[in-house]
Amino acid sequence: QVQLVESGGGSVQAGGSLRLSCAASGRTLSIYDMGWFRQAPGKEREFVAAISWNGGRTKFADSVKGRFTISRDNAKNTVYLRMNSLKPEDTAHYYCAADPRRFSELSDYEGIYVYWGQGTQVTVSS
Q1: Buried (b) or exposed (e) across 85-122, using 16+ Cβ within 10 A?
Q2: pLDDT, tens digit, for every residue of 9-50?
Q3: Residue 54 DSSP class
Q4: CB contact at 8 A, 124 and 92
């Protein structure tokens, strides 16, 4: 019942920063926990970060902890992923996803997220 569109990807040098946006339509974003995942060529999709429906709780993969920040603005139906101190290993296609469950803990398991965007490419050069 929700459509997601990512934007903000691009090419940056190592050590640089980038902010990704995920715009939702179809219904209010406030009903969903939201997550960011990424997939590099030849690799499996991996969890990056998640945020609860009201922004009160967040969760990060160890590989990005301390460098990435997830936030949301439910009034704008938008979720953000701020990426600092980018590394070449961060190069991937980044996806936004929505978790329709209620009264649940934040999940890093991609199978629990029902709605997915098309993704946006992030390329980090050395």
Answers
A1: ebeeebbbbbbbbbbeeeeeebbeebebbebbbebbeb
A2: 999 999 999 999 999 998 788 889 999 999 999 999 999 999
A3: T
A4: no
Q: Rounded mean pLDDT of the chain?
A: 95
Q: Quick one: tokens of 110?
A: 């991609």
Q: How many CB atoms lie within 10 A of CB 60?
A: 19
- The rounded distance, in Å, linking the Cα atoms of 124 and 13 is 5
Give 62's contacts (C-beta < 8 A, 6+ positions apart).
Answer: none
Report which DSSP code applies to 100: -
What distance in Å separates the CA atoms of residue 89 and residue 50, rounded to the nearest whole number?
Answer: 20
At position 87, the amino acid (one-letter code) is K
